[in-house]
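Q: My labmate handed me this sequence with no annotations at all. I'd like to see what the chain might look like in three dimensions before we decide whether it's worth expressing. Could you predict it?
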Amino acid sequence: MGFYTNIEDSENFWKVAADDKDFWDAYVSTRPNYSPPFYDLIYKYHAAHSSSFAVVHDVGCGAGQVTAELTNHFSHVVASDNDADHLEVAKRRLTRVFDSARVSYTHSKAEDIAKHHLAGSADMIASAEAIVLMDVDEGLKSFAHILKPGGTLASWFYGRPTFADPQLFTRGQSIIDKIMVLNWTKVIRGSGPLRRWGFKRTADGMESWLDFVRFPVEDWANVQRYKWNTHGTLPFFGQEACGWAIEPMSNIGNKEKIIIERDPDFWKNEWNVGAVKSYFSVLFPGFREAIGEGDAEIDSLFHELAEVMGGESAVREFTWPCVLTLATRR
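A: Here is what I predict for the chain of 330 residues:
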């Protein structure tokens, strides 16, 4: 197996050019749709500890999917990302709908967001698919600085698409896992030391189901950890793709609440095998360069997956493993 090595050696391994419109359009269309009940869970939690819905931050906003939703409940949304290109994509997509009074933009790492915004200036911080990419201890310090007392931190992470039907899960999930491993192996093992370190930190965090996140009791209260579909695989890549030991850890506090639920309808997608291919084609920006126009082993696995699903046009239901952490600023 060849490895893709023509990549910048940086711990920031998730990077796409802003002008790659085809990538971003496909990326947004193949992500899970965060459901109204999911967002309602976050809003109700916040309302239980605060009456203010003035300012919310979307940290690690990417293309702005979460930013757009947050405008439905907050007067102003601050969208931030550590990559200027990603922030430009969010601006391009959102400024057609929202003016500067509703949405503003900050180019910043999560760990440095407190350098750009005043202490106690935010009511809520939302962060989707980003917390495993940051120095979480520094990130939480920054979040605690800008949140008002009673403010909410909501961070979540979802993993691999998972067959909702138990029989299809038994017969076909391992094929999806193999495709995932082959794609990530080509990217990760061709990385330099800084990039590999970034992958290592992320792999450990994903394997932990975000339990590695420590909420210091002097800053945070009312911590709740929701986990859906733990029979699925949360990490996009692990030891098989990385080639090194994965080291999950748990920093769950004694008074924290943990809720685990299996729900085949959670963020349900209905896909044929072509849609699964589209999902993989834009799951990570390095896949296209690493795989090229095709890979015989991966193509064979997609053919096998199509047979399990009942043919190229057969539509099957997929759900998602996901974890959501909620915490209140003291």
